[in-house]
């Protein structure tokens, strides 16, 4: 149930309740001081407003006892808040030993996650409910951060080192995860969904196959899931060429040669993207070797074929201009 | 407008610092601290409106979940350049270089700062640094975030990182020179009788700020120099691919940039410590404690920097120590707030515009400061770190605190600076608009943050929209609140009602000289026989002081 003005995100991990309780405690403590000071200011502003132009205030200029009191009382409260926060944090930074370990790689701008049995996902994480989960995380380029608001946990993913985080999901459902450390252009798109499942469902999922849908629409779904769409923008302004109308067309490569974009070329471009670079683009595409099955490559090819008749954008398309084709 | 007006209408002095010499070179080569302050006023206002323009673009864009106006890259440039312009070129220099520059010599009874030429030099350095940064903005922009985190900034960014880094590096020296000048001036140039504990708290706050500037700024200069060398020459200080450590950059960066928050807020606290006694016509409650709190903030402020890094994977023990110290640094700010509140009791309070800004500051700084406790608390930071909760928190400190203080100070000393009054009712309305617009803009961002909306997102899931719409609505009100003072202050500098030497009246030495002051500040060197904010021993102010048995507190002289 989402209220129109929500305040708390869903509580779906072992940490969520503790963090929220601490938050509420700090909130009430702070509200007490804020309301007290505000009321005192309003009261004084009213009671001691100037009545005559030449009036001056009283001679009062300090009170050491008061100073000691309003130094000591906030200090004690602050140390209490510190201690409570420290307990939660130390627990969070000390993973239990019986965890289900998931490997996470962050890269501009997608997440690659791998289950213990080797099943890989992109921008999706499936986990069983009520199991201790540990994420072992590295980055291929800049600093990212894996953040699941419903779990109240996050951790930076830093190149050159592994960071870990752990949590125990307590409620089945689908929850957002985000990249919360600014990482460049598509930082805001670098997120996805954590799906918390019943253990039995999870076991089925872990051994399961892609559902029975037609290849082109399965491919279209993969195109988004694998984050192809973040670079191969339809309008040609992405980091990779637009794939509209590419299938079957002649493509001009960086070395000046022309190739026909057939099934074999597309397959090679997915698995060994650096083999043939389209003219005007950088060799930035990561390989999907080992990330996609043959069937998925076929689905993707089917999808690219299905957008054969989409209009080719003027700028940035991989399709060779007529002049270049004529020259050959 | 103060109701205290006795005798004939005040006249502008015949000769003052504004009309003593004419021509563009009399300004560009001036060594008069008051004119240099006005040069700074013009340049920081310029950068404030550049940064404000970027802010408006950001808020407009975020009106819809898929983004309204800008591409991802453009949006990233907007928030980066908003931060760079506002922090390095507006907030850090605003109160010290404008009000501090103008007022510190006047407040301590000196003719100028200790090093007038270095003072001018610091403005030129600021301008050169600003020029590099402007060049970066127009030649590709900057998209690293104002924090320049590596290796994004040094290896992966496709924007004009190098000129921006050079610009910020250069501008740092302007800060160092200003701080040095203030320290030496306060130590050596106080008028006879102006003992340390008779100094206005504005001067104490600037003293503490100067210490931070001198000790902190060189560190960020070194850090940016290293990042610049990595970017330009491929030296691997921070890039892990070359054996560097990206977290080292964050340690070095925050070692300056956390104390830099105190460079922004301490001077504003100094302004508030002037406004509240003046408009309550009463000594500041707990003068010594407020002065000591400024120094405590400056010292402890250097020991809390890794609270920006609790979730980088730093050691758990380091996080515990720095969280603990973060709670300690909150205490002096709380002490100041209680003392300001206590000052009101038994006062004779008027509601002139500067006092409205002081009330606004109290409310907003209270929220900003208290929400800092949430972020310093490890168990809450692991959820709200790098979300809009952080954005809301630091805007409450920097805009709600520092900018409210700056505008309050600008209104308070405007008659001293220009010799003319601003329009009181219009100014009160503008202050109210600012307060409402500010809260509407930034309060919803606390809620967004706790719901989990990360910072620096050019698009966002639809469930976050309602608070973003509120925030954008608030920002448009806020924009009006900033344009109004800009227009009427400029107008009244030339056409406002003549203010006279001490229109409020206030007790500081700066109010004993004509408005605008003569170039040499005082006709004769003043001799100070009273304590700060001592309305009862100032017959020259013409107030109705009740007959008291002489209670002459004398713990001020030393």
* Number of helical stretches of at least 4 residues of chain A: 7
Strand content of chain B: under 5%
Largest sheet of chain A: 5 strands, mixed
Uncertain residue segments of chain A: 323-328
CATH superfamily of the largest domain in chain A: Cupredoxins -  blue copper proteins
Overall pLDDT of chain B: 93
What name does CATH use for the topology of chain B? Cytochrome C Oxidase, Chain A
- Main β sheet profile of chain B: none
Radius of gyration of chain B: 23 Å
Adjacency order of strands in the biggest sheet of chain A: 3-2-1-5-8
SS-derived structural category of chain B = mainly alpha
Average pLDDT score of chain A: 87
State the fourth-level CATH superfamily of chain B: Cytochrome c oxidase-like, subunit I domain
Instruction: Give the name of the CATH architecture of chain B.
Output: Up-down Bundle
Determine and state the CATH class of chain B: Mainly Alpha
Tell me what the structure shows:
The complex is a heterodimer of chains A (328) and B (558). With 328 residues, chain A is an alpha+beta fold. Chain A has 2 domains: 9-39 and 64-208, Immunoglobulin-like; 215-327, Cytochrome c-like domain (Cytochrome Bc1 Complex, Chain D, domain 2), CATH 1.10.760. In chain A, 34% of the residues lie in helices and 19% in strands. Chain A has 7 helices and 12 strands. In chain A, strands 3-2-1-5-8 form a 5-stranded mixed beta sheet, with no helix packed on it. In chain A, strands 4-10-9-6-7 form a 5-stranded mixed beta sheet. A two-stranded antiparallel sheet of chain A has the order 11-12. Chain A is elongated. Mean pLDDT of chain A is 87; it is low at 323-328. Chain B has 558 residues and is an all-alpha fold. Chain B has one domain: Cytochrome c oxidase-like, subunit I domain (Cytochrome C Oxidase, Chain A, Up-down Bundle). Chain B has 15 helices and no strands. In chain B, helix 3 (72-108) packs antiparallel against helix 7 and helix 3 packs across helix 13. Chains A and B meet through helix 1, helix 2, strand 7 and strand 9 of A and helix 3, helix 5, helix 8, helix 9 and helix 10 of B.
């Amino acid at each position: 149930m989402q209220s129109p003005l929500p305040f708390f995100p869903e509580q779906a991990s072992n940490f969520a309740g503790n963090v929220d309780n601490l938050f509420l405690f700090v909130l009430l403590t702070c509200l007490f001081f804020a309301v007290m000071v505000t009321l005192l200011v309003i009261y004084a502003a009213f009671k001691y407003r100037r009545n005559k132009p030449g009036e001056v205030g009283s001679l009062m200029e300090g009170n050491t006892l008061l100073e000691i009191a309003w130094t000591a009382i906030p200090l004690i409260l602050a140390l209490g808040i510190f201690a409570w926060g420290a307990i939660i944090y130390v627990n969070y930074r000390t993973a239990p030993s019986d965890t289900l370990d998931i490997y996470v790689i962050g890269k501009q701008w997608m997440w690659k996650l791998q289950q213990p049995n080797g099943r890989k996902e992109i921008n999706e994480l499936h986990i069983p409910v009520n199991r201790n989960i540990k994420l072992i995380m590295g980055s291929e380029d800049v600093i990212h951060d894996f953040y699941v608001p419903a779990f109240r946990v996050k951790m930076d993913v830093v190149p050159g080192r592994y960071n870990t985080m752990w949590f125990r999901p307590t409620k089945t459902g689908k929850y957002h995860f985000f990249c919360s450390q600014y990482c460049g252009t598509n930082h805001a798109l670098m997120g996805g969904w954590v799906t918390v499942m019943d253990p039995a469902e999870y076991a089925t999922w872990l051994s399961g196959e892609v559902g029975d849908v037609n290849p082109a629409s399965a491919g279209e779904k993969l195109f988004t899931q694998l984050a192809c769409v973040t670079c191969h923008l339809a309008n040609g302004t992405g980091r990779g060429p637009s794939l509209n109308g590419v299938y079957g067309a002649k493509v001009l490569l960086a070395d000046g040669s022309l190739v026909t974009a057939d099934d074999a070329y597309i397959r090679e471009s997915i698995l060994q993207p650096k083999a043939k670079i389209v003219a005007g683009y950088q060799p930035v595409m990561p390989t999907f070797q080992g990330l996609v099955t043959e069937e998925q490559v076929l689905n993707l090819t089917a999808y690219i074929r299905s957008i054969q008749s989409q209009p080719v954008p003027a700028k940035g398309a991989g399709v060779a201009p007529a002049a270049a084709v004529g020259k050959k | 407008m103060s109701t205290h007006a006795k005798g004939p209408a005040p006249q502008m002095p015949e000769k003052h610092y504004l009309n003593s010499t004419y021509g563009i070179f009399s300004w560009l080569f001036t060594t008069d601290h008051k004119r240099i302050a006005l040069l700074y006023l013009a340049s920081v206002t310029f950068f404030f409106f550049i940064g404000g323009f970027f802010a408006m673009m950001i808020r407009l864009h975020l009106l819809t979940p898929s983004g309204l106006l800008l591409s991802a890259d453009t949006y990233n440039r907007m928030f980066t350049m908003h931060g760079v312009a506002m922090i390095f070129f507006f907030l850090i220099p605003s109160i010290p270089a404008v009000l501090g520059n103008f007022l510190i010599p006047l407040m301590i009874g000196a003719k100028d700062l200790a090093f007038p030429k270095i003072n001018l030099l610091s403005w030129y350095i600021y301008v050169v640094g600003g020029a590099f940064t402007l060049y970066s903005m127009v030649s590709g922009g900057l998209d690293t975030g104002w924090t320049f985190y590596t290796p994004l900034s040094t290896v992966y960014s496709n924007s004009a990182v190098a000129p921006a880094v050079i610009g910020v590096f250069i501008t740092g020296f302007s800060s160092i020179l200003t701080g040095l000048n203030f320290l030496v001036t306060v130590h050596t140039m106080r008028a006879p009788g102006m003992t340390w504990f008779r100094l206005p708290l504005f001067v104490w706050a600037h003293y503490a700020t100067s210490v931070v500037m001198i000790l902190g700024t060189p560190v960020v200069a070194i850090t940016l120099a290293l990042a610049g060398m990595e970017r330009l020459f491929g030296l691997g200080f921070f890039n892990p691919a070359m054996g560097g450590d990206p977290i080292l950059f964050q340690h070095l960066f925050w070692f300056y940039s956390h104390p830099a928050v105190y460079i922004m807020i301490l001077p504003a606290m100094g302004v508030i410590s002037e406004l509240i006694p003046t408009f309550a016509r009463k000594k500041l409650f707990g003068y010594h404690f407020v002065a000591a709190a400024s120094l405590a903030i400056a010292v402890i402020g250097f020991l809390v920097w890794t609270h920006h890094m609790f979730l980088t994977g730093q050691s758990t023990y380091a996080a515990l120590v720095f969280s603990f110290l973060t709670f300690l640094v909150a205490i002096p700010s709380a002490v100041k707030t209680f003392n300001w509140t206590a000052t009101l009791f038994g006062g004779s309070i008027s509601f002139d515009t500067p006092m409205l800004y002081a009330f606004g500051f109290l409310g907003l700084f209270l929220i900003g400061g208290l929400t800092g406790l949430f972020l310093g608390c490890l168990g809450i930071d692991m959820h709200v770190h790098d979300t809009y909760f952080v954005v809301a928190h630091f805007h409450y400190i920097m805009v709600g605190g520092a900018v409210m203080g700056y505008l309050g100070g600008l209104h308070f000393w405007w008659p001293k600076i220009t010799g003319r009054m601003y329009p009181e009712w219009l100014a009160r309305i503008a202050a109210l608009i600012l307060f409402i617009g500010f809260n509407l803009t930034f309060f919803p961002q606390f809620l967004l943050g706790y719901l989990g909306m990360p910072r620096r997102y050019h698009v966002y899931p639809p469930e976050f929209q309602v608070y973003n719409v509120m925030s954008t609505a608030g920002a448009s009100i806020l924009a009006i609140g900033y344009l109004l003072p800009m227009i009427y202050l400029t107008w009244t500098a030339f056409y406002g009602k003549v203010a006279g030497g001490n229109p409020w009246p206030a007790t500081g030495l700066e109010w004993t000289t004509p408005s605008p002051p003569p170039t040499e500040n005082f006709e004769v060197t003043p001799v100070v026989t009273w304590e700060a904010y001592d309305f009862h021993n100032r017959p020259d102010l013409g107030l109705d002081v009740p007959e008291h048995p002489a209670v002459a507190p004398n713990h001020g002289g030393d």
